[in-house]
């Protein structure tokens, strides 16, 4: 399928020269992060979201909806490929919030991207639902640091017993580096994500099955909704938290603050 790039770029508010350059990669990545929200409403409402490109274009580009990592990164990978970038799909093990000794499955999608004028490949990821997510791609080089204002990231090698090097993305939390996820450079294919997507969306023990999660990065602030808890983090680190009163307010906040509008009559669980 050929994506409607005009519609996609209008959705994220981007205009520029459509070439596979580092600057295009950076600016499209940031515009996507600011333009399309993260949300898991299909799993919460009882279904697995489609990863077919026509469905992703209809949902994320032409509708007031967002998606989670497989949707966002499948869409961006297709856009970048169409622009002439070389894209390799990867998977990561999320370590953010894990207790010492916990081993989580590889359930996060991300990508390695090569630009025509880049001396090194980049790690790109527009689907990580946390305020430590990358706003711009980071060079895939050991100890690389990125000031993707107002955030700061670095890539390091993590201890690992396997034959491939383990990379770890970390974000600066104001004095210490907080690990986000770990990954190797083993390529993954579409059927791999179909299986992982189905597991994450339908397994009753999956956190994405149990509560509404939404994230929105906006100029000057980041919004996060978990169940009925709304957290706003300003660029200066100030955090404001409040509990929403009920389903009607959740739906209103999703529509007005996150840009996620559900069909009239939608009933959220819980």
Keywords:
270 residues, alpha+beta, eight-stranded antiparallel beta sheet, five-stranded antiparallel beta sheet, 8 helices, 13 strands, 27% strand, globular
Q: Gyration radius, to the nearest Å?
A: 18 Å
Q: Approximately what portion of the residues adopt beta-strand conformation? A: 25-35%
Overall structural class, as computed from helix and strand content, comes to: alpha+beta
Poorly predicted ranges (pLDDT <50, ≥5 residues)? none
Helical content stands at: 25-40%
Record the strand order, biggest sheet: 5-4-3-2-9-8-7-6
Mean pLDDT: 96
Write a brief structural summary.
With about 270 residues, the chain is of the alpha+beta class. It is about 30% helix and about 25% strand. The protein has helices at about 5-10, 20-35, 40-45, 55-60, 70-85, 190-200, 205-210, 245-255; strands spanning about 40, 85-95, 105-115, 120-125, 140, 145-150, 150-160, 165-170, 175-185, 215-220, 220-225, 230-235, 240-245.
